[in-house]
Amino acid sequence: MSSGTGPTLAHRSVASIRSAPILQEPGAPHTPPRTISNTYGSPATIRADDDFLIIQIGSRFVRAGFAGDNQPKAVLTCGPKDQRRAGDFRDWQPAGDVDLQSGDKDYELWRYDLREVDLGLVYDKLDRLLRDAFGRCLLIDSRPRRAGLVLDSGVPIPILSTVLDLLFKGFQTPMISLMSSATMSVVAGGIRSGLVIDMGWAETVVTSVYEYREVKCTRSIRGGRYLNHQLYKLLHKILTDKEEEEEGARVISFAECEDIMCRLMWCRPPASKSPQAQKPAQRQSQQLDTVEEQDESEPEPEQSLQNSVASIPLRSINPPRTIEVPFDKIADVCDDTFFDLSIAHSAFDDEDFPVHLLIYRHLLQLPMDVRAVCMPRIIFTGGCSNILGIKGRIMEEVTSMVKRKGWANVSGKHVEESRNSQFSDRRASIARSVSSTATASDLGEEQESSRPSSIASQSDIADPIEAKVARHRPQISQMQGEFRTLHSLGPWAGASLVSQLKIPAMATVDRELWLQQGAYGASRPNEIDVKAQQRQSMGAGGFIRGSGGHHTNWTLGAWGNV
Amino acid sequence: MSPSTPYTYIQCPCSDQTVSGPGGALSDPEENEAFDPKAPRSNYSLYPLEYLLYCEDCQQIRCPRCVTEESVTYYCPNCLFEVPSSNLRSEGNRCTRSCYQCPVCIGPLQVGAIQPTTDANLLPTQYQTNPTGGPYALFCQYCNWTSTEISIEFDRPSGIYNQLSKVNNGGQPKLTLRDVKDRRKDNPDEPPVPDDQVDADLQFANLKAFYQQQLSESNTSIRGLPLHDGLGFSSPAALTRIMSLYTGRGHQGRLQQGPADIMREALGTNDGLKIANLDESKDIKKLIDGGWGVTASLEQRSEQPTEPARFEDELRPIAYLLRSKRSKRCPSCRHIISKPEAKVVSTRFKIRLVAKSYIPTITIRPLNPTATPVPVTYRPMVQEETPLKPHQAYHFVVTFKNPLFDNIKVTLASPPKTPGRFSSRVTVLCPQFEVDANTDMWDDALKDDEKDRSRKADEGPEVGKIWEKGRNWVSIVLEVIPASLRIDQLEKKGNDNIDTSPLKKGEDLLEIPMFVRMEWESETQADMDGPPSKDKETREKRELAYWCVLGVGRISHE
C-alpha cells in the first residue's frame, strides 16, 4: 500500500504515478510532494513490497491488517484454548469440560512484570497468533513484508526485543517501523496534540501528546483486569455467600466472567451518586451540556433503572443456573474500580489512582501550555472505554474536580477554606475580562497564558487595513483551556494512516542491523542524525536492499535503549 | 494433553533454534536436560506425525512453523468461487457474492423472499414461484435469525454484498465520502454531517483526505518531520514555528507568506474531527430495560468484521472469510515440499512429502489392555483405559514401523524419571534395535510367522530383547511405574522448595519424553522414488534424531 496515495488500486504500481492529481488546489506554487515509487526500483521489487502490515500488540489482543485500511483484518486473542497442541480437537467435541482453572494469566500474552513472564512462551504465543492472522485472516503468504508495529511506549525492552526477534526471524520482515500507540491515537483523531486515555486490560494509561510527541505518561492498575476481578468477586459472593479465597478453582470460568463484564457493565451518570457535584456555573463544551439535559428531563426512568435486575444464565457452573444480579450492583463494581469515591484521595498508592484522579494529576503536572492544548483534545481508547457511560462520567468527575480545586497542587482543610473564600472574588474579576476564554477552573494561570498573545496581536494589528483583513479571514484559533472529548479511530487506524501517507515513524529497525546487533545495538535517541534517518526511511523501498553493509545508527525510539 | 490415550507426538527439531532466541538466557534442551512435555512451551512444538512434512534435500522434519508458504488459489468456502488475487487486494478478504454467516450462531444464511403476512395460508411453493419476488431477506436455517430483525431487506436476491454494504442496521442508508461530497456540491451551505452519522469508514476517509491535503500544502522542507522523535531545531522553519508559538502570531498574526509551516489539525467534520459522544444514557436505558438478552456475546462480537457491536441488533451478517490453498517450501533449500492442485474442488496434492513416509510411525498400546475393544458398529466411540495405579509396574508395547526401503537402526533414550512434579519411573527394556526395510508387502504374508506367535506365549517381556517383529516393524516393551499424585508424598529434591499447589490440569496425564535417533544407509542425492538398485557403491550413512512424546494414560487419583 505504501506505493501510492491513491485510495484504491494502490496495489498497482502504475496507479501511484497518477496519484498526484488527487491533491487539491495548493495554496502557492511549490515543489509537488515526491512519491517514491517502486516503479523506479529494480524489477525485483515488484513483489510483496507494496503491502505494508500494521501489527498492534496489546496485552490481550493482537490486531493485524494492511496499511490503508480503516480497521484491522484480524483481531485475535489468545486464550487457553488457543494454547493447546496441534491436532487437539477438544474444542469441537460436545460437552467439553468447563475450564475453571485458568485465570488472567492464561489469557494474557504478556505482562509488564517480567518476573512472571516466560519470554519464550511469549514468542510462541505471538508466533501462533500472527501465523493465524496472516494465513487465515489476511490470506498472505510468507514472503517478506515491511511492517509497522504499534506498541504502548511502556512496553519493556525484553518484550519488544522478543517481538522484533519473532518478526525478523520468523517472518523475515525486512524493516519494522515502531509507532507508539498514544501518538497513533492522536493521529487517528485528526489532531496534533492531545491527552490519550487508554483504558486497557492491564492498566489505564494516560499519555499527553504534544505536537506528536509524548510528553508524559502516567499509569494506574485500574483497568480491565482489575474490573474483571472485582466483578468476579461480586459474582462469587452472590453464588457462594462467601468472600473469595485465594487458592482453588474458580466458581465460574474466566471466559464467562469476562463475557458478563463485556455485556452488562455500565457506569452510572455522576449526578445520581455524587450529590456534592454542584450545578456548574458555566459550561462550554456542548457534550457535557447534553448529559445535563438528559439527567433533568428523565429523572423518573433513572429511578426505575436503579431497581432493575439482570438475570444472567451461567453455564460454567454445575448444574447451570440463572442468577439475578441488580444492575445497581454492577454499576457499583464499575464505580469501585474506576472511581472509588469512598476513599480519600491521599489513601491511594502511586499505581492505583482512580481514573479521574489520575487524569487530574496528570494534567496538573503538565506544563501550562501543554495542559491548555491537551484539555480540549481528550481521547479515550482501549476496551474499557466502551463501558456504557464511563467516558461521560470520567469527564464529569474531572471537570468538577477542576472546578473545586483549580490547578493547585495543594490540598487540605485550610486550603479548602481559603479557596472557597477567594473563589467568588476571582470569578467576578475573570468575568470582567472580556478577551479571556479561560474557564473559571483555570484561574490565574490561564489568564496569564492568554495575556501575551493578546499583546502580541495588538501590536501586529495596528495597521487598520490589516485588521480589517484579519477580521474577515476565517479564524483558525486553537481551542485551549476547556474540556472537550474527541473520538479517535484508535491506534491501529492511526498507524495505518501514517504508514499509507509515508510519514516516517518514530523509529525504524532494519533486519540486517537487528540480526547483527540485537537490542544492544540501539543507540540513544538523541545520538542520531535525524536527517539521515529520515532520508533512509523515506526511501524505504530502496533502503531495504541497499543498507545491509552500512553501519548506521538506529534507535528504539520511545522504548529507550539497553 | 489429547483427551484419549495413548498417543504419540513428535517435536519438530526447529523449535530448538527458537528456544535460545530471545534473551539468549534459555538453555539448549538437548545439552542440559530432557525435553519436558508438560512445559507450556512444548505445546507449540509438538505435532502429531500427520501434521509434519519432510524435506528430502535437507533430510529434516518440517513442521507448520518452519515452512514458507505461497498461496495457490483463494476461494470462498461457501460458494467455492475462485477469487483472483487482484480482487483480494481491492475487495478484501471476504466473499463479495452472497455468502453470509449468521451473526448469532454463525450458521450459513440463505436468501429468501419475505413471506407477506396475508399469504400465510398459501402453500410455500406459491410465493416462491412469484415472479416479482421481493422483498428479500437473509434467513438462518439453524437459529431462525433473519435480517428483518435488524430491518434490512433487499430488492434483489442476488448481489447481496453490494446491497448490504449500502445499508446500516435499521435500514438507514450508509453515508460514504462520495455522498457527502455530492451533497456539498449541490448545496454548499449545508452544515456538515452530524457526528452521530459519521461512522468509522467515513471518518477514516475524511481523515485521509485531510492529511493528504495538508501534506501537499504544508512546507515540503519539514514535511513528515512532526512525527519524528528527535526533532531538530536547526531548520529555520522549525525555529519560526517555535517563535510563533510564544508570540501568538500563529493564531491571529498577519497573513502568512506562502504555505503553512506545519500542517494544521483537523477542525471540522470534513477534516475527520469527531466529537466523542459522551451521553450514552440512551444505551444504558436500553441495556437495563433489555437485560442480558439484548446484548451480544463476546464470541458474537469477535466474529464481527467491523467495529464491535454491543447489542444484538447491532450485529450484522458476516461475509464468509475466504480461504487459500497454499504450497509449502523448505525455508533453507527452497524446494517445494507440498503443493495442492489449483482447482478449488480438488483435494489432491501434486507434491506432498509427508513425514510419515520418511520417519517411523510410533504407536503405543498397553500390553494387557483393560478396555474392551469397541465393536465396529460403535466405532466413533472410544473406550478409555482404566487409570493407572501409582507404584505399580505397567508394560506398554511401543511399535516402530519403518516406511523406508532401507533398514534402519533405532536408538531410544528416555529419562529414567519423567520431568515434572510427579515423576514416574520409565525403563525402556530394549533401547537399541534394527527395523527391516519396507519391502514387498507380500513378503509379510508369505513369511512363516509361527515364530513370533510362540514368543507371545512366553511369561513376559525380557530385558534387552525385542518383543515382537514383523516385516518392517518392531515392537519393544516399556516399563512404567506411575508416581503417586498425592501432594503430601512429594519427594524433596535438594534445597528446592516443593510446589504444594493443588493438582493442575493435565498433571495426572503420564507422558514420557523419548529421544529417537535413527540411522540408515541410503543412496546419495536421494532419489527415493527411483529403482533402489542403481549404484550400490554410492550409499551413504544418514541419521535423524528428534524428541517424541508418548502419552501413556492417566494416573488415578487416590
UniProtKB/TrEMBL annotation, chain A:
Residues 418-428 have a biased composition (Basic and acidic residues). Residues 22-41, 273-311, 418-460 are annotated as: Disordered. This is Ro-7. Residues 273-287 have a biased composition (Low complexity). Transmembrane segments: none annotated. SUPFAM superfamilies: Actin-like ATPase domain (SSF53067). Residues 450-460 have a biased composition (Polar residues). Belongs to the actin family. InterPro entries: Actin (IPR004000), ATPase_NBD (IPR043129). It comes from Trichoderma simmonsii. Residues 290-301 have a biased composition (Acidic residues).
UniProtKB/TrEMBL annotation, chain B:
It comes from the Eukaryota. Keywords: Acetylation, Coiled coil, Cytoplasm, Cytoskeleton, Isopeptide bond, Phosphoprotein, Ubl conjugation. Residues 179-188 have a biased composition (Basic and acidic residues). It is found in: Cytoplasm, Cytoskeleton, Microtubule organizing center, Centrosome; Cytoplasm, Cytoskeleton, Stress fiber; Cytoplasm, Myofibril. Residues 20-39, 179-198 are annotated as: Disordered. The keyword Acetylation applies. Pfam families: Dynactin_p62 (PF05502). The keyword Cytoplasm applies. InterPro entries: DCTN4. GO terms for cellular component: dynactin complex; stress fiber. Subunit of dynactin, a multiprotein complex part of a tripartite complex with dynein and a adapter, such as BICDL1, BICD2 or HOOK3. The dynactin complex is built around ACTR1A/ACTB filament and consists of an actin-related filament composed of a shoulder domain, a pointed end and a barbed end. Its length is defined by its flexible shoulder domain. The soulder is composed of 2 DCTN1 subunits, 4 DCTN2 and 2 DCTN3. The 4 DCNT2 (via N-terminus) bind the ACTR1A filament and act as molecular rulers to determine the length. The pointed end is important for binding dynein-dynactin cargo adapters. PANTHER family: DYNACTIN P62 SUBUNIT, DYNACTIN SUBUNIT 4. Belongs to the dynactin subunit 4 family. This is Dynactin subunit 4. It comes from Trichoderma simmonsii.
